[in-house]
Amino acid sequence: MILGFQVVWFACAWGASHHYPLLPIIVSLAYLNTYMSKQVQKKQAYLFLLKMLALGFVLDSVLGFFNLITFASAFPEPFTFLQPWWLSLLWLCFAASAKVSFSWLENRQSVAILLGAVTGPLAYYSGVQLGAILQIQTLGYVLLSAGWACTMFILIRFIRLQASHIQ
């Protein structure tokens, strides 16, 4: 699942920036299908994915609204600030990889927060380098760091609370 998520990340970022929309869709849906096929309690798994999707949508869209991040967006004006569809797929796949990727952080909350604060903005920076994200302001990186620290805090909480259905 960890390597699979990296494939999804690259497919989403590269596919979006090079105008191959089917690539992120096919790779993400295959990944999510694999994840859901392993879930015992499907309803709870879907709710978990939706919660993480909502969290990501708010984080990215708020930063976009304040022009701290500029996406290569398919949305027309005045909605270009909204998180692009391919990034929504990426958030879903990130959530699907959570238990496998981050279970070792379950009792290391401070490490999870630090990891999120550092690697979250790095992933977005990589998206800029691939052309999937047009630009990020300095304050945007600072807020991404804070947002990803909070995301990892919340994610670890979700993993603890819902350990019975996240495989």
Describe the overall structure.
This protein is mainly alpha-helical. The chain is about 70% helix and about 5% strand. The protein contains seven helices and two strands. It has helices at about 1-15, 20-35, 40-65, 85-95, 100, 110-130, 140-160; strands at about 70, 135. Strands 1-2 form a two-stranded antiparallel sheet. The radius of gyration is 15 Å and the shape is globular. It starts with a helix and ends in a 6-residue tail after the last helix.
Offer a concise description of the structure.
The chain has 167 residues and is mainly α. The chain contains 7 helices and 2 strands, in the order αααβαααβα.
Query: What gap, in angstroms, lies between the N and C termini?
Result: 10 Å
Cα Rg: 15 Å
Q: Major sheet, described briefly? A: 2 strands, antiparallel
Low-confidence stretches: none
Shape: globular
Strand arrangement across the biggest beta sheet:
1-2
Structural class: mainly alpha
- The total of helices stands at 7
Order of helices and strands: HHHEHHHEH
Number of strands: 2
| Percentage of β-strand residues | under 5%
